[in-house]
Each structure stands twice: as C-alpha cells, then as structure tokens.
Amino acid sequence: PRLAKAPNPSPLPGSTTTASTPTSLAFETRLLSPNPPETKTTTTTVGSQLRSPAAAADFSPRTGGAAGAAEMASSMRRRPSRGGGGPGAAAENWERLVRAALKRDRAGGAGASAAAAHAGAGAGLASAVPPSLGRTTNIEQILQAADDIEDDDPNVARILCEQAYSMAQNLDPSSDGRGVLQFKTGLASVIKQKLAKKDGGSIDRQNDIEVLWNFYLEYKKRRRVDDMQREQEIMRESGTFSTEMGARAMEMKKIYATLRALLDVLEILVGQAPSDRLGRQILEEIKKIKRSDAALRGELMPYNIIPLDASSVGNVVGFFPEVRAAIAAIQNCEDLPRFPYDTPQLRQKDIFDLLQYVFGFQDDNVRNQRENVALTLANAQSRLSLPNDTEPKIDEKAVTEVFCKVLDNYIKWCRFLGKRVAWTSLEAVNKNRKIILVALYFLIWGEAANVRFLPECLCYIFHNMAKELDGILDSSEAEPAKSCVTNDGSTSYLEKIITPIYLTMSAEANNNNDGKAAHSAWRNYDDFNEYFWSRSCFELSWPPAENSKFLRKPAKRKRTGKTNFVEHRTFLHLYRSFHRLWIFLILMFQCLTIIAFHHGKINISTIKVVLSAGPAFFILNFIECCLDVLLMFGAYKTARGFAISRLVIRFLWLAAISTFVTYLYVKVLDEKNARNNDSTYFRIYVLVLGGYAAVRLVFASLAKIPACHRLSNYSDRSQFFQFFKWIYQERYYIGRGLYESIGNYARYVIFWLVIFACKFPFAYYLQIRPLVVPTNIIVQLHDLQYSWHDFVSKGNRNALTILSLWAPVVAIYLMDIHIWYTLLSALVGGVMGARGRLGEVLSTTYAFVVICKLDITLTCANLMQIRSIEMLHKRFESFPEAFAKTLSPQRISSRPVPQDSEAATKMYASIFSPFWNEIIKSLREEDYISNREMDLLMMPSNCGTLRLVQWPLFLLTSKIMLANDYASDCKDSQKELWHRISKDEYMAYAVKECYYSAERILKSIVDGEGKLWVDRLFQYLNESIGRDSLLVTINLKKLQLVQSRLTGLTGLLIRDETADRKAGVTKALRELYEVVTHEFLAPNLREEFDTWQLLLRARNDGRLFSNILWPNDLEMKEQVKRLHLLLTVKDSAANIPKNLEAQRRLQFFTNSLFMDMPEAKPVSEMIPFCVFTPYYSETVLYSMSELCVDNEDGISILFYLQKIFPDEWANFLERIGRGESSEEDFKESPSDTLELRFWVSYRGQTLARTVRGMMYYRRALMLQSYLEKRYLGGIEDGYSALEYIDTQGYQLSPDARAQADLKFTYVVSCQIYGQQKQRKAPEAADIALLLQRNEALRVAFIHEEDGVSSDGQAIKEYHSKLVKADIHGKDQEIYSIKLPGNPKLGEGKPENQNHAIIFTRGDAIQTIDMNQDNYLEEAMKVRNLLEEFRGNHGIRYPTILGVREHVFTGSVSSLASFMSKQETSFVTLGQRVLAYLKVRMHYGHPDVFDRIFHITRGGISKASRVINISEDIYAGFNSTLRQGNITHHEYIQVGKGRDVGLNQIALFEGKVAGGNGEQVLSRDVYRLGQLFDFFRMLTFFYTTVGYYVCTMMTVLTVYIFLYGRVYLALSGLDHSISRQARFLGNTALDAALNAQFLVQIGVFTAVPMIMGFILELGLMKAIFSFITMQLQFCSVFFTFSLGTRTHYFGRTILHGGAKVDMMCSFLPILFV
C-alpha cells in the first residue's frame, strides 16, 4: 500500500543518511498480531499526542516469533527504564521492533499472512479495522481512501489517517475492544511517518479543512464525476446497458468510495455549527450534495446480485427486461394503504416497506427477501419467452406460478385441517396481492431461524399474519400489526413471534444432555412441528400464548410430552415398522414347512394344517398392535384423541378376532382328529378368513394401488368407508397419496415377484425339505449317547439337537431375500446401464451374449460407448453433432442444416469447438495436460471460409508423413492412391486440410504477380484432380521436398512480423516457387510457367513475392500455426492425453453426449440454481509450512505428491515457467508460492478444490451465454454466426457475467468464519483469499457478539451474515440478520445449512460437501439436468435429482481402492435400481433439490439431535412422505473424496451404521414402512435399515451355526447321530449335519460390484480388477467392514452413541 511510502524520520541502525523506508500496511497488520503492553489514554485528537516522531513509541507492540523475541530481548537489555528513557530512546526501540518484525516477515512468509499479501487486495490497516470499530463507523472506508489518494496528495492522506485515529480513540478511549489497541498502534506508526516532511518542515493543521475541500473539488473535477452522473441518469432512463459503461463500473465505485470518505471527514472537521464562512459554505455544500447525489450513495450500497436498495449502472442484471419487470411489480403500491416511508431518492417504496412497517421485520431480512422475490419473479418471467416491451411488465402467469409453488404446502395444510385459506379464491386474488402474500411468506421464513425446521408452524404463522394483513390492506392507512407490537411500542416479528418458540425449543434441546438423554425425555423438531397437524393447534391463539402447553418449558416434574411418536431404544421398532414383511416371511415359512412335512402332497388334510396360518396372522398383527400401545408411552398426554381411539379400537379388535379365529381353528383340528364327515367349523373358518381377506384386499387396493386412488378419494365422502380406512391406516398430514403410476407400480411388483419365485423354491428345496427326514429320525431316536448330562433333549425328543439343526436355516431364510434382491438388482441395473449407453463399450461377444440371454432389443448404437482413448479417437467425428443436438439450445441446433454432409458436419463443429477448447484449457489449468498436449487437443473454430472440417491435431498427427510415404510408393492411379489414404478417414482429412490451408495461406500473403502464380498453380492442380490425372501433373517423388519448403515458410509466419522475417518469407516463397515450378510440376506445366512473360519480368526485376501481407487476423494466424504443426508433428498422438484422469474425464464427457437427457434451454430461460456447501473448520488451503514439514517417515506432503503425480508436477512447473525447483526456490516468489499452495490443495480434500470446481458452473454459463448471442445473430458487439469466434474474453463480457449471476449463485456456509477472523486463524485468511479470487462466491457465517438484555444482563447475540469481496478485496457485509439465540440446537451440519439457506437463490439448490469436486465439461450439462424438474418421471414432477459421483480417492492405497469401488457400486448401479423401483432417497451430496418445494417443507435436512445424525437421508424421507419424487441421472457426474485410511474408514462405517441404527427408531422410517404399499416397502427396507439388519443377521448366523456345531460335538450327539445314520443307511442325516454351504451364500453380495465393473470397464478389465482385489485380500477388508457395521448398528439401537466424526480432511494420506 502506498500509505507507508512517507519518509522515515529516523535512520535504522547502521545507516548514515535518512532514507525512505517503504513499510507496508500489510506488514503493520502482521506486526500488530501479538498483544502489546496495556496502554490507556483519553486524548481525543492526535494533534498534541503525535507532534514528535517518538510519540508512537508509547504504543510499541511486542513482536512475535523467534526473531522478534530475540530482537526484543536485545532491546530490553540496552534500554533504560520506561520512566527515564527519552524520546530518542523510544524512537530507537520502535525502529528495532520494526526491523525485528521485518526479519520475521522474511523468515516466515507462509500461512495466513502470505495469503493476504499474495492476494494483492485488502492488505493494510483498512483490512485490520476491529469489528467493534467497523460496525459503527466508516473508519475502514476512510483508511482505504487515504491509501487510494496517497500518490495524488500525501498531505490529504495524512489528514484522513489522523481523523481515523481520532474516531477510533473517541469510540474506545481505553482500547478495551478486541484488537483495538493493536490497530491504534499500527495507525499511529503510519501517521508518525507522514508527520515527517522530506524538507523537515512542520505540519500546519489550521488549513486542513481548506486543503481537504480544495482536494475534493479538484478530485471530483479531474475524475469527471458530474459527467459520469449525467451519463448514469441517461442510462437509467433509457433502460439499456452499455458495455463501455459496464467496464468502468469498478473505477466508478472506487471514485465514489473516495468521495464519500472525503465528505464524511469534511463534515466531522467542520462540525454542526461552524464559526467561519468557509466552514458554513462547506457544510451547506455537503448537505446539498447529500440531498441530490443519490448515485454517490447508491453505488456504494452493498448488494448481493441486484442493487435494489439504490440504482446502479455498474450492475447489468438490473437492465434485463425480466428483472425490470419484477422490480416494477414489487414497487407497484397503487392499491396499498398509505404508510410512512423514509428512504427517499435511493429507491421507490415497495410492498416490502409496507410489510416491514406492519410486522417489524429486520432491515436486512427485508433487503434479502426483496432480492429473493425479485429474482424468483424475474426467472419465472424469463421462462415464458415473452417479447421484450419498452416497459416490461410481469406476466400474470409467472406470478401465479410462483404463488402456487411457494404457498402449495400452506394450501394443503389448510385443506387437511379443514380451514379456509387466507384468501377467498385464487381467481379473486389479483396479481399485486399474490406478490404481497409471497413476499410475506418469504419474510416470515427468512427471519424464522430454527423455526424453519417446522414447516407447518410457519404455515400457522403465515395463516394468522396473512389474515391480519388482509384487514390492513383493506384500510386506507396502514398500522402496525397488534401481534408484533412489543412492550415498548415498537414492532418486532422476531421478538414477539419467533423468540418465544425458539426459547422453548432451546430449553427442550438443553434437556437432552448433549444428546445422551433418551429421545423420549425431550421434544425434538418433529414433535414441535407435528403439534400443528391437528386443529387443536389453533388453541395456541394469536400471538402464541406464553402459558400454552406448546410453549411450556420442561421442568423437573412438569413437561410437555412427545407428539404422535416416541423414539424408544429397542429392536422392537424393526418389527413394528415392518411387521408386514416379518408376518409374510413367517407365514410363508410356516406354510412351506407344513407342506414339506406332508411330503409335498397338497390335499384337504394338508390344506387344513396350512390354514393354521390364519391364527398366526392375527396373533402376529396383535403383537404389532401391542407394540404400538407400548411404544407410544410418553406421548399419550399430548397425543390426539383420534390417535388414542384408534389404538384402543385396534387393540380390542385384534384381541377379539385373534381369540375368535384361534378358537375356530382349534375346533377345525378337533373335527379333523375326530375323523367324521362334519366340517361345519371348517366352513365357518374358511368363510371368516375369506371375508376378512376380501375386506383387507379392498382397503389395500384403495390405499395402495394407483388405479383405485380415484375410487378411494370418492369413498372418502362416506363416513363408513372413512372410518374403516382410518382403522386400516393412520391418517397423517404427511404420507398421504404414496402411490405411483400403473407402469411404475407394475414394474416393482414384477421385480419382487421374480425374487419370490427364486427365493421360496430355493428355501423349500435346499433349506426346509432336506431337514424334514433328519428331523423325523432324530425325534424318533431314543438311545443317543450324550457325553454330558442333558436335562432338555433326553426327555423332550432331542429338542436342542433339532434347534441346533434348524436355527441356522431359519436365520438364513430370513436374510437371504436380501441376497436375491442383490442378484436381481445387479442384473436389472446392468441392463439399464447398457440400454442407457452408460460406461464402456461392450465387446461384440459380450453384447451378443447379453442380447441372446436376456432377449432384449439393443441397437448397435446403444452398445457403442466410449471405452478407451482409442475409441475416443475413432468416434470423435460424431461428437460435434451429438453435442449440438444435446447440449445446445434448440434454436441453435435446429438451424437449417445444409444438404451436404460435410457442410453440416462443419456447422456442428463450429458449435462444438469453442466448448471443446474451453474443456481442454481447463485441463491445462488443472495441470492434467502439458502445453504441447493442449496444442494438439485444441480444435479450430471451423467458422471461417475453409471448405472442410478441421479436427484437433491429435487426430491428424503424423498423417501427412504417412500420406507422403504412400504417395512416394504409389505406382497405381490417383483413385487407388486416394482409396488407400481414405481407409484412414483422419488421414484423408489431414491431406485435404493441408492442401486447402496451403492454398488459402499462400493467396493471403502475396499479391500482384505472386498471387497470379498461386491462382494459376492451384487452378491446374484442381483441374488435374477433377480429371483424375494428378499423377501426370505432378511428381509425387518430390512431394516431401515441397513439404520441407512449406514448413520453412510457415515456421516464419507463425512469429510476429519484423523486417528481417518479411525478407525471410520472401526468400522462402521464392525457394518454394523454384521447387514447385522446376521439380514438382510436370514438364509441360513447368514450361508454361517459365514462358509466362508477366511472371518472368517480375522474377527478373526482383518484384516476385517482394510485398508480403503478414497474417495478423486471429483466424489466419490460427490457420498458419495449425498448418505448421500439421507438417511438423511426427510422433504418434495415440495416447494423448497421457494423464489417466484427463482420459477418464474426456471419455465420460464424450460418452455422455450419446445418453438420453432433456433438451437444453438458452441460459436466459434455464432454471436458476444455487450451490450450497456447509463448512466448519476443515482445511481450506494448505500452507507452505504444512507442505514442507516431514512426517515421522521423513516425507513431506509436497515430496509425496511429486512422486505420485510426476506428470502433473511437470505440467505445473511448465505452466508457471519454472524448471526443476526446490521448496526454497518457491519461497523467493510470492506468486509462485501461492500457485504451489493451490496446486497441492487442488489434490486434497480441501475447500479450495470444492470452490474451484463449483465455480465452473458460472464459467460454463458465461461461455454458453456469450456464444448463444453470437450464434443467434450477433446481438452483442456486432458478431455474426459465420464470423470467426474468439472466446478469449468471454469471462469479461458484462452481459455474459450478468446472465450467469442471474442464474447461478454459490453460498458457502462457513459457520465459525467470524470467530476464525477474530482469532486471526489461517483458515479465515484462506477463505478471504477464495472470496477475492471468486467474485460470485458468497460466504455465510454466524457472528457472535456480546450484548446487553433489556434488564441489563450480559448476553450473547447471534447474527447470520453474508459477505462477499468488495472492490478492494476485503470482506463486505451484505446482510446481517439477528437470530433469537444460538442457532445450534441440534446437529451441527444441518443447523449450519439452515442458518445460511436464506441467502440462496433460484428454483433449485445443489448440496455439495466440502470434499467434492466438479469439472467444466460436466458443468456444461447442468442446464440439461435442471430441465429434469419439468420432465416426465411418473405422476409427479421430480423434487430431488440424484447425480452420479466419481470417487477420486481410489488410487491412494488398496484400502482406498476397496472403499472407492464399494462406494462407486452404490452411487451408480445401486441408486440406478432404486430410482427405477421408486425408493431412491437422498444419500448425501451432490443431489439437486427443488429449492422452493423443500424450503417450504422443512429444509434440505433434519437437525434433531442424535436421531437425525444421518441428516441427509431424512431429506429424502421427508420429500417422499410429502409426495415428492426422487430420480437418478448418470449423464453428469461430480467428484467426491472418500476416506482412505483404515481408522478413518472404520469411523465412517461406524457413523453410517450408527445413523441407520437411529433411523430404525425414527418416525420417518416407521411411517414409510407403514404407508408404502407392500412391494415398495420391501425395496425400501432392504435398501435402508434392512441392509444393516441383514448384515447383522449374517454375523449372527455364523454364531448360531458354530454354537450349534459346538453343542452337537461336545454333547457327543454328532458322533452318535452319524453312527445311527450309517447303521440305518440314511444319508440325509449326514447332509443335514453338514449344511455349512448355506452360510457361504453371502458371497453373492459381491455380484453388483462385479456387474458394475463389467459395465464400466468391460469384461476383461472387470475380471482383472476383481482378481486383483482378491489378491489384495479384499475379503479381509469387507469382513472387517461387515463386523464394524454390525457392532455400531446394534450398539446404537440399544444404547445410542452415534456421532459425526470429523475425519475427512486433516491427513496427508487423503491426497489423491
């Protein structure tokens, strides 16, 4: 910074003259980081205190670090006592401290300070203003202005610094605030330097006001501020945006900021009552300017995306027609009552001002939601594709769409409770009233804090506030709502409505003993929300009565109970939630066993025994009912009367029917044993069972089968049917209508019928029937010899022996259905992947086998996927057309296609090439490819006049040399030669391009006689080609000589133009002329050219080729360079790119072009979206110290990465222009040091990597918007679709940037960023650096500060803040919304998401973890993905879009590889099948949510402590229960890091298993298990908690089998039974005793992974990969993993203890 360039008043030790020491403010900031000695002063001005240079010595800080400590100690030894030292000694001590700090700065330049210094912005004291000073003053802006004008007038800069010091002193005289004393010390040292004039003169402060005023006038005149303001006014009135004006926006903002600071200082110095004429004149001028100059304030007003609080011409978004229409709609206050408005000139009053006045919403909440609503309306308008009017107006259709979507949950809630909505009818509500209601809901939601987790509570609040508002709107004058009026007469929605609810929730959360208390001991978020699921919630009154049960805080003996459900810790929840599954399995086992014991004969006797399933069915249902009664304990006091009535009725009914049916069946058995012909009881029994079954079937059909849903709704009109349906199925607000279309229903029913068709025959023939004969024999054996005294089996027909025999079989029977599901899902998933063209190309043999065995129709195109880099080369010709038809809007791809196929391909190539080139550039920026590889991979624009398609050079390298060899050896005709060349289509392209390019280049660089020669030459050649007589016209033996001359010519032309090079080009052309004319052409043509007089004279006179027209335009320069490479690159490019990650990315991207995806909309019409990343304290950016420190093995992170990524390290050094460099070499260059830190961080699981990846969305949208305007006719800058397109500056296009900002936002919720800044943590500096490098990045955090309550008690105040980087690179606060208290009442991550979700924008939100990555080529497909929200995916539109993940940590170790492959199998094949069966949930990131749907229904996760430890999946549960639809899409992928160390993997597995244990106890799983139809419930069970149940049963089965064998062996029965079997000749006994093969069927669970390998890698690679895993002992790892899951799952259900372990980002081993 320039502020520190003033001369140093005293020389440093050892110097002989006084010199100027450029001590930067950044250095001063670092100097001030330790705590200086305590100093107190009450001086309010700096005049007397800073007269002498030594005055700053009183503020001397202690330096930190080793160097600083040594210097300080040396200084203390030489210094006399504080009281005896003079000014000279103090000044000397100060200079010693400065020198010590400089030494420390040179020694340790890494870490947070280096990040700030390297950023080049935001350094200096302006960035070090303590929060306690910056919140209430503009000290920061004054210091920044002083820095900006230092070069113009150092004296004015000195005045500003002194005023800043005085303001700091007045605000905090005793320096008690955090960092205030350090700040004052640094500022004092800067002022000390400025006080010392170069000529040694004194400072006259009497003229400061006059000096400052004159400088203000001169600065304003020099910067043409008045002219700029007039231009802005014209711009605002015209409603159009100027690119030139947009480019000046940054400069204008800086000028305005400086002027504002000057005015503020002048106003303070003059005072309110100036005594002199100049002061009064200045004060009047200041007041006049402040009244009239709205632009001066408007341009400085912080904003997020649209400057709604004050107009600004520097922001292009505000000029878009849809945005102007939305703003105009919000500002339409014609039919609204009058209300006070005190914000003149900056903007017009609008409906948000009215709502703020009425309900007392916070200022920043209003500003935040004003922009949110404006953007929502604007984006809805843009999707209508309406023509742009002069005065754009918001369309009724757009408003209605937003209104219905935002208030959909509220409307359903009112309908469920039988309440009338807050308006009469939708048709009766006008457009303006709809916008007001939408604005009211968003304002309620935006300030609701933790109450946002209670969506129906928000509906209740909105319902009452909307009714209040309705009465106010009908009046002529608005008045504050009575519900929000506080005791002091002000209005505050937060204090009156939200805070009481929050305090109750906080008290309940404190009652959970940090998650250790039982769930039944406190109310969680669901309990609070479900209170509003009944009409009794209106007993709460309005505003909520503090003495109500709902707001009752828990006390020792008096507390409000749970609502509707109690999460008791017991395994019984598994039976209660999924009783239909267990009853089905038990009854089937009973029936199969009965049939087996009857030797498989089906007769009347067997049927009578089989009908014993009837009593069993009713008894099992009665057990479930008893569990309902028991597990509801703790909620009876608060439960609805209807719920308790249903429990009682069901209990009595099932008890009665169970007793009655059991009695009947006993009578049936008596009839059977009596052997008479009387079958009366049997007929009654069958009639009862048949009638009951018919009734259950009817109600099941009405509730579950889609075709009967209309009939079900019709039957609801009858109270009779309503009653029985209510008994059959509990009626909740959520979970209604969980049915799918007929097609989807049939799909998963058939799926499970196939599983049953496999499972039950297997169980009957291989599990049950083989045990029948041995069981009968063992029962009849009486003389068995026991090795011990047996007290059970001897007198009970060997009961323990039979139990040992049957127990493992029963256990396997209960869990093997999961194995059958696994097998069938692998088969179905594989077929779906093949049909969807996913993964790798299938070999011809394998494809034939698949088609023949599965009898499915797959075209060859479906099987031709990109398998390898060789396949990418071969199919590259088809990519442009696929890209244009898939990823380009229809307006571009549907343009008239030329009939000529080559012309059509060229048109598609012109669309494809800019995007392909940007992808290649991104790979180079990420150091996956080298400069040479980038040149070979880049594709020409294909927009010029060249008559053929130009492909990337990596397809054409060495083709010219091979063609030359073919030509030299040619002894046939021209057709035969061309036929031979055309066998390689890219060789044919290379030959054509070389010919046409040479012709065009030669014609463009010569004129006169030379141009005539070129024209005549190519005329002859073209005629010869047309007559098939080329071999007669030229001498092919000399072709290589012509090539060498042409290569020499292009080698000169690719360089910049100079006189010497022009002479060299002339010489090269003449040599080319000689070779072509006298050696290459046939003799007859040679003579013709030699006798051409015009050419002969020019040659003799030296005029031939003397005038060279150097190729300067971009297209021609590109063509010359390309021809040169085409002629010179000789080595094969078959393995380009060499990097495996680059190959994988390009293969997946090109393969996805042939997959089915929705049509892409233009950027202006696409669905807007936001990316949302929660962050706590993980690594942001690695520091140099972390990179260079050796671990216990003597290996540093940097050394490790250099060895595992040698090619990427070489590419990095090439990119920054270095050769082989050591760590010390990097420290010499701050910019290279920063680049190195980013290079390392981009290869770890860091926030920097995630931010870079997600910002690719913005880059892709800018590129797409920039090119769309040119393809559609050159709207901007006069380009047309046929002209050469240079995308070099697309990121600087104001229109493209604004369009991207309108459609994309990125919010990182850094929960403790404020605390990190206060303690100057390196993470804070790194986050600030990310903000500076990414202008569209927003950081939200929770700010904590000390406050005082109304009764004088010290309290903590919490605010949700959103910041961005301002024009100086410093944090600029956009919004600050006060919270009712500490927002962390539940789990940390969802609470972190919840506080920041109010700052998101758009219709969709993608949730991204901070260990994820993204790629530019995948970001180009986001428009297609978002269109899935409007696609046909069943009877409902999607609410969550599942996205494929690529696990990038698989190459670190074998453990990482196992984890990666296991994860990949689930996120691809597993989720593909789940979506197909309509039970896919949200299993984590990077799914895309329908933002409006979810924020109006509780958010994107649940946060109740412990029970929602796996917070992500509850978003899927919630979405499904609320009639959402979750899909899965695999044409787009996002990177994901996973754990790679054994300890981390165990912790992760434990966390997931523990989370599933908590899910077993949850109400969400219970309701889904109860409300899904039977077949959908089966899929849901076996893919969520059932997977862990089966895992646990696998382990238990082994124990059961082994303990059974131990019993048989130790008791001697094993030997005794075997001897009896040999004596009887019965082999069945031996077979039954050796049934361990059944325990080994778990090996089939590996089938999905194998199928995934085959689909993704191909058959041979899959076999090789699977064998490699076995050799690496993967079975040991998966056995360990299975045991870990079992332990944590069972322990959590019984004892709790599930928790999140922070394990992802702190270990070097996590690098990829």
TrEMBL record:
One Pfam family this sequence matches: FKS1_dom1
Low complexity composition-biased segments: 13-26
Domain 1,3-beta-glucan synthase component FKS1-like: 432-545
GO CC, any one term: 1,3-beta-D-glucan synthase complex
Residue stretches spanning the membrane: 578-597, 609-636, 648-669, 681-703, 745-766, 799-821, 1580-1602, 1637-1655, 1662-1682
Membrane protein topology class: Multi-pass membrane protein
Catalysis: reaction(s): [(1->3)-beta-D-glucosyl](n) + UDP-alpha-D-glucose = [(1->3)-beta-D-glucosyl](n+1) + UDP + H(+)
Protein name: 1,3-beta-glucan synthase
Protein's organism: Aegilops tauschii subsp. strangulata (Goatgrass)
